[in-house]
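Amino acids appear as letters; backbone shape is given numerically. Here is one record.
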Amino acid sequence: MKKNIYADDEKYRIKQRNCSDYNTLKSFCFKMTLFNIKNYTKEIDNYLDIGSQEGQFASLLDKNVKINNVYCNDINKITIDEGKKKYPKFNWIHSNIEEANISVKFNLITSLNIIYQLFTIENIKKIYELLHKDGYFVILYGDVNFEVKNITYNDILVLFKKVGFKIINTIKTYENQSIETEHHLMANRWYTCLILQK
């Protein structure tokens, strides 16, 4: 597996986990993502969350939408082990998405606050291939994560369309958190939620 700060740095892992814990409970943009998924899917056979942390968002979705099989993917072994303790009925995949050996096809794949680290045509193609026909890929990202890489919103849409995705909906929201918070890695920023379909 390739080296990655999140996979190898325990302090960074804890900071990310705390952020996910907080977001799942209180973040408007996570609630917005949940609302949008519920608008497009009523029942899901197979669901995959990429960069799942300890399964926080997957658990939130599982409580609000009928899902038969939940799969959580993460690159940090400790995170996977903690997630297995919290949500033993979920299926856990310890791997980079580009190296993951997954034979299941999914009705829904989500990637919250991690897509900027996976933003290559090879990764997007792999995610596309993991979806059933007409399956949904829902992403949420802080706009600043792409801005620092000089990647525009239009660049993002062009790559997804090039792979074959249809753009179903885009929602932008401003997450206004106190700058003192320890839960956000970067507070007070715009978020984009993209609903894509195969």
